[in-house]
Recover the amino acids of this structure.
């Protein structure tokens, strides 16, 4: 028996540590630990709830914008504010384009190197690579000369012995199965995707001033002013044309590069449809309101839960059923660490009881993570693109169903194959395809509103804090790229009294609960084959398939506990 | 991307970048750095001779927003920054290796490139409770920062958190977070505040270092003057409206649609310095004020506590009397900047001397306030 430690887990956001027990060439148990803590919710207390979004957005710069959206929704819920339809539309465009951006970066820059051996690209025949590329996609950058140029770059890099970011990869590992030509094609698209992501995200710059960390949300709507004829307006006719062009280019990239690449890679790694299965419980809050944010029956992506892989039944979801455990987390509850608490009753005091650094191993039978363990009706749940696509598929979402069935047909795989490491990757690509299309549709809709003189972007009825009740509390949600995100805010005397976030990666990467139930990462790593314990690329494959975001995942609130000084700037 | 005995330009030519494009790139860099046009040739010449220095990027109590920001770099592109200008050997968010192999890559740089490599730090460093609030491979952020930054030729603090603790150090600073200068006083640090840092400025600092063998002239906070020397309000496209007394009164009103001044909506532009309005973001596409929202002064010192509440009009910010106008506050900041500009003049004169080429054994010095003359 050997204990494998992967720390830092790289090509993720944040600080994640995986410890795994390996017996007979396979993982027999695993522990997931978040190793960084900031305490942002503590910092929020006593501040103006209208600016909470500016602060919470900084929970994560990879999933930038998602906490901003969730935060304004939470405060709007608390104060009973309905936002104008334009504001909702702009929010949908920003959020959906974030999916496309994030999913592309995830596949190429965070995940691909688990499947692609960059050094094998040197052995490829550029002519055959061109044939391969043209056989799977009409994407125009596919000539022999193009791939030869890329190969020359890789050759120069390898010969320089200054491999930069690629210096420490698991090159030559027996688990890499792509033929040289597929490796070369993937390296070319890795480079193209780097260009794509910086161009495409100008959608966020137009609507939000910059990316990362957009600066255009408001409690009550958006600050992106609309006027068809005003050069000084954030959104005018010229900007709509620009947004439409970016949206259309993204559809081409997703459909002609990203999706075909996922299918190509998957076809060489079919074993991974049977690995990394995980919990079999899937949660989605649903999102993209087509009416009001309260009407979950009119969300573009449905709300629902699936238990035990049963796609025949989608269960209704009530956020009141969300709780968190700290039994194995470095926090304590006043009435004992065996209980679970709803975020409104949530209580956390950070208390590190792990080994003193530097350390070799965590005490995994005790507390071992800065992440809490969220549960839904006491069940551990997986969240993210796979959960959303399964809930949408099982709920009869026509575009999702068509896309999922199309991919399954091309891979000659049954729907149950989606419960896997590759299933998560495929679901993400399918979602990028569906949402890239939605961005175009919503931009067109925004253009129509502009044309019809519907310019309202903000509901200012409750902007003045004097109009607020003495006390209020609210829930905001968003289906972020990595999954279900909830913020719970408690406002008293115009200030934030308490704030709590339950975040996608907390669901997925959280530790065990009081009953010993594993979190999603921990469960999905069981039975993973390990060819070489010194180079556990197989662990990275499954963990990366969730697209970890640890900065988001670690948070703390302190509902009834310690008092902190008034947080006024002085 | 090129053999260690080959020049940057040679490598660029190999991958199909012609000399014209290279000179265009040098001109863009020279402009960002606010150097006179005659420096284009000098930048080009220095880069032609440059061997690839090694860079490591450390992430501590961060949100990765600064990493994402550098991924959006356009001139030069991220690929040019990461593969061509430098050998980018450690950066957790995007590097190939993980676990032991990643640790080994960092250790190799510290040992074999001692005193020669550049370090970038993103995120704050927690000092409370023996540093348990941030560990990587079982070691505290402080231990890693000390080892890596004290052995680096220079350290770039990317973003607000690495500079002064940023959001993580905002009251009540639950983890005792500090910036890199406070955590590792012996490190030679240049601060690139901002939330996040603008990648155009980071790229410009890197190019300046490659060109002149030292870091650019800095202000009293060790921030490069080319990026932090001017008040946002003075560079703002809405300034004419302010001067004419035309303000946004309510979100979405006629003034808002016409792009009037956001001062009454809480804009901190008069109390902030940054080149945000001129360099802009995402390939020059926009910046926060253009998107209709006030500036939050994210490049100012400890802005989370000192510039919030973000929707209060400036005169009510603690520290200023209620009768002080934005213009007067602006003058206060201008006075501080004018002091720094004198320093800048001296530094520019110094810059005219011949530079030590990059890779030379003498590490470049960051001029602190005491050493500026």
């Amino acid at each position: 028996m050997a204990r494998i430690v992967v720390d830092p887990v790289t090509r993720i956001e944040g600080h994640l540590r995986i410890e795994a027990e390996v017996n007979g060439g396979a993982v027999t148990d695993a522990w997931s630990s978040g190793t960084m803590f900031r305490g942002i919710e503590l910092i929020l207390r006593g501040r103006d709830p209208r600016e909470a979004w500016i602060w919470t957005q900084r929970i994560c710069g990879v999933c930038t914008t998602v906490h901003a959206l969730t935060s304004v929704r939470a405060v709007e819920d608390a104060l009973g504010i309905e936002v104008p339809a334009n504001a909702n539309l702009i929010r949908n465009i920003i959020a959906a384009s974030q999916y496309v951006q994030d999913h592309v970066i995830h596949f190429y820059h965070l995940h691909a190197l688990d499947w692609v051996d960059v050094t094998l690209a040197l052995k490829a025949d550029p002519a055959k690579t061109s044939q391969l590329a043209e056989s799977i996609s009409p994407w125009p950058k596919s000539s022999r000369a193009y791939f030869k140029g890329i190969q020359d770059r890789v050759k120069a890099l390898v010969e320089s012995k200054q491999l930069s970011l690629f210096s420490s990869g698991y090159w030559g590992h027996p688990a890499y199965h792509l033929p040289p030509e597929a490796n070369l094609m993937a390296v070319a698209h890795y480079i193209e995707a780097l260009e794509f992501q910086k161009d495409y995200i100008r959608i966020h710059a137009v609507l939000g001033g910059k990316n990362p960390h957009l600066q255009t949300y408001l409690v009550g709507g958006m600050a992106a002013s609309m006027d068809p004829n005003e050069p000084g307006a954030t959104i005018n006719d010229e900007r709509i044309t620009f947004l439409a062009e970016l949206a259309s280019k993204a559809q081409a990239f997703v459909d002609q590069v990203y999706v075909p690449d996922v299918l190509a890679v998957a076809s060489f790694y079919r074993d991974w449809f049977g690995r990394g299965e995980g919990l079999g419980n899937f949660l989605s809050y649903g999102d993209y309101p087509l009416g009001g944010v309260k009407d979950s029956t009119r969300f573009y992506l449905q709300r629902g839960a699936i238990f035990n892989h049963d796609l025949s039944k989608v269960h209704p979801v009530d956020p009141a059923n969300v709780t968190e455990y700290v039994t194995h987390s470095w926090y304590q509850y006043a009435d004992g660490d065996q209980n679970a608490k709803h975020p409104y009753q949530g209580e956390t005091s950070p208390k590190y009881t792990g080994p003193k650094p530097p350390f070799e191993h965590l005490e995994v039978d005790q507390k071992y993570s800065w992440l809490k363990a969220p549960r839904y009706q006491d069940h551990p749940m997986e969240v993210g693109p796979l959960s959303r696509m399964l809930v949408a598929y099982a709920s009869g979402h026509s575009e999702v169903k068509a896309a999922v069935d199309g991919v399954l047909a091309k891979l000659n795989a049954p729907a149950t194959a989606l419960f896997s490491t590759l299933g998560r990757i495929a679901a993400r690509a399918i979602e990028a395809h569906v949402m890239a299309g939605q961005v175009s549709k919503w931009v067109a809709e925004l253009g129509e509103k502009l044309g019809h003189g519907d310019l309202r972007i903000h509901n200012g009825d409750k902007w003045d804090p004097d109009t607020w009740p003495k006390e209020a509390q609210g829930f905001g949600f968003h289906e972020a790229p990595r999954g279900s995100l909830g913020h719970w805010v408690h406002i008293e005397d115009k200030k934030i009294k308490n704030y709590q976030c339950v975040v996608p990666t907390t669901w997925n990467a959280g530790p065990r609960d009081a009953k010993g139930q594993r979190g999603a990462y921990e469960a999905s790593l069981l039975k993973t084959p390990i060819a070489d314990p010194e180079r556990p690329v197989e662990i990275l494959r499954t963990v990366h398939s969730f697209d970890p975001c640890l900065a988001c995942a670690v948070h703390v609130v302190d509902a009834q506990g310690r008092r902190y000084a008034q947080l006024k700037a002085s | 991307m090129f053999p260690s005995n080959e020049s940057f330009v040679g490598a660029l030519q190999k991958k199909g970048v012609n000399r014209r494009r290279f000179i265009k790139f040098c001109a863009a860099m020279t402009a960002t750095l606010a150097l006179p046009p005659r420096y284009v040739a000098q930048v080009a010449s220095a880069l032609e001779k440059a061997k690839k220095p090694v860079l490591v990027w450390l992430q501590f109590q961060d949100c990765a927003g600064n990493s994402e920001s550098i991924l959006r770099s356009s001139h030069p592109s991220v690929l040019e920054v990461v593969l061509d200008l430098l050998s980018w050997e450690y950066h957790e968010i995007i590097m190939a290796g993980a676990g032991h192999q990643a640790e080994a890559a960092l250790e190799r740089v510290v040992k074999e490139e001692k005193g020669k490599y550049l370090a970038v730090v993103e995120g704050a460093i927690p000092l409370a409770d023996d540093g348990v609030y941030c560990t990587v491979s079982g070691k505290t952020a402080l231990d890693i920062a000390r080892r890596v930054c004290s052995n680096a030729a220079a350290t770039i603090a990317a973003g607000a958190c690495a500079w002064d603790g940023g959001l993580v150090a905002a009251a009540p600073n639950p983890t005792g977070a500090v910036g890199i200068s406070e955590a590792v006083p012996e490190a030679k640090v240049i601060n690139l505040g901002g939330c996040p840092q603008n990648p155009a400025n980071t790229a410009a600092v890197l190019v300046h270092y490659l060109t002149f063998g030292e870091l650019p002239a800095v202000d009293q906070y060790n921030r490069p003057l080319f990026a932090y020397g001017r008040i946002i309000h003075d560079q703002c496209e809405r300034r004419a409206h302010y001067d004419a007394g035309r303000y946004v009164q309510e979100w979405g009103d006629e003034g808002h649609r016409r792009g009037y001044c956001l001062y009454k909506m809480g804009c901190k532009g008069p109390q902030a310095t940054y080149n945000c309005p001129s360099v802009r973001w995402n390939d020059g596409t926009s910046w926060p004020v253009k998107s209709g929202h006030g500036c939050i002064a994210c490049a100012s010192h400890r802005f989370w506590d000192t510039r919030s509440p973000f929707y209060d009009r400036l005169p009510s910010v603690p520290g200023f009397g209620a009768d002080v106008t934005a213009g007067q506050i602006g003058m206060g900041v201008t006075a501080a900047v004018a002091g720094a500009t004198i320093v800048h003049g001296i530094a520019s004169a110094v810059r005219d001397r011949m530079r030590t080429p990059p890779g030379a054994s003498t590490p470049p010095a960051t001029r602190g306030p005491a050493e500026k003359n």
Observations:
- Chain A has one domain: 2-113+196-553.
- Chain A touches chain B through 117 residues (CB under 8 Å).
- The domain at 2-113+196-553 of chain A is CATH 1.10.645.10 (Cytochrome-c3 Hydrogenase; chain B).
- Residues 237-268 of chain A form the longest helix (32 residues).
